[in-house]
User: Which sequence fits this backbone?
């Protein structure tokens, strides 16, 4: 399935530029991870692609449907969990999923079966009759995901579905999404870069409303200056190698970014001095830092009026 934009721009209230001439084209089945700092424009992009928000200029196509001109047709193909979505507190999870399915046109009986299956797949079967206001934050997020996966929509938008989930629940969600992606396209935003790396068949890095890059993890890694990372578990190292970048993480760890050959030049010194170390390929987190930098201020639109 294809997602394509051409010069996609969104300016809120004539002054806050959230997307700036965004042009990209991806063709995949599976998971499309969208990452970027706070305010990079991820939610704005999701809202435009899911026909909830009109662009200021430019065009966007999902599955060859224009998000503005073919919005009605596109809405039949998609299901969305917005970033701030919460279940209605007075409904139970079963009622929540079921009413969504009935609204989408499922029969009374079918909606019940599908809802129960979806709740079970997210481990919520024991809570299906509890009022949603009694669920924890993580359980509510899971319920929102159960709601969209219960539908047969082939394209699913999930804006930060794992934010606030504990470590174990997040990994459970990864398993669910991996299973789900076999026959659907999932557009996923997340601040957990490990998640974007593990799940994403393609990854898009947004930086202040602009495309920083797009590709598989290997494609992204092949373009950066320092594709390897040496992790040194010691506070007492003396590295004098040109062309690498050294970063002290804490008093127990130092990271050295470089090319494979530069990193391996350092290994004899570490072995001789019995210093513990590991060598890894740059993670998406490392790649992200190299693309987006670490300068302060993720949100360029400094708003003074509240
Ligand atoms: N309704 C709105 N009105 C005015 N400005 C907005 C509105 N929604 C978003 N913005 C601005 O647009 C920019 C992009 O916001 P967006 O929500 O798309 O970012 P994001 O990448 O999803 O961030 P986060 O990671 O914090 O969710 C930000 O500068 C934000 O302040
Ligand atoms: Mg957002």
Assistant:
């Amino acid at each position: 399935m294809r997602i394509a934009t051409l010069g996609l721009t969104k300016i809120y209230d004539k002054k806050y530029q959230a997307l700036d001439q965004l042009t990209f084209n991806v063709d995949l089945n599976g998971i499309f991870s969208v990452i970027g700092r706070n305010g990079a424009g991820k939610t704005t992009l999701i809202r435009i692609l899911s026909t909830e928000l009109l662009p200021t200029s430019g065009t966007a196509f999902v599955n060859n449907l224009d998000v503005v001109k073919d919005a009605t047709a596109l809405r039949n193909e998609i299901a969305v969990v917005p970033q701030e979505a919460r279940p209605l507190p007075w409904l139970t999870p079963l009622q929540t999923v079921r009413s969504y399915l009935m609204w989408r046109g499922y029969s009374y009986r079918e909606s019940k079966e599908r809802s129960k299956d979806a709740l079970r797949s997210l481990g919520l079967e024991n809570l299906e009759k509890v009022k949603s206001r009694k669920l924890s934050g993580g359980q509510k997020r899971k319920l929102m995901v159960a709601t969209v996966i219960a539908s047969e929509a082939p394209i699913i938008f999930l804006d930060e579905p794992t934010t606030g989930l504990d470590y174990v629940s997040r990994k459970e969600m990864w398993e669910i999404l991996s299973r789900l992606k076999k026959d659907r396209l999932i557009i996923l935003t997340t601040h957990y870069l490990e998640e974007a790396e593990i799940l994403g068949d393609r990854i898009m890095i947004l930086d202040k409303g602009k495309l920083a890059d797009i590709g598989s993890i290997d494609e992204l890694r092949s373009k950066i200056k320092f594709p390897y990372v040496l992790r040194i578990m010691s506070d007492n190292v003396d590295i004098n190698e040109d062309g690498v970048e050294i970063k002290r993480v804490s008093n127990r760890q130092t990271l050295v970014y470089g090319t494979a050959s530069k990193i391996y030049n350092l290994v004899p010194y570490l072995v001789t001095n019995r210093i513990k170390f590991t060598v890894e390929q740059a993670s998406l987190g490392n790649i992200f830092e190299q693309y987006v930098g670490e300068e302060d201020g993720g949100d360029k639109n400094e708003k003074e009026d509240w």
Q: What stands out?
A: Residues 108-121 form the longest helix (14 residues). The chain has a mean pLDDT of 92. The chain is about 35% helix and 25% strand. Residues 2-221 form a domain with the Rossmann fold fold (CATH 3.40.50.300).
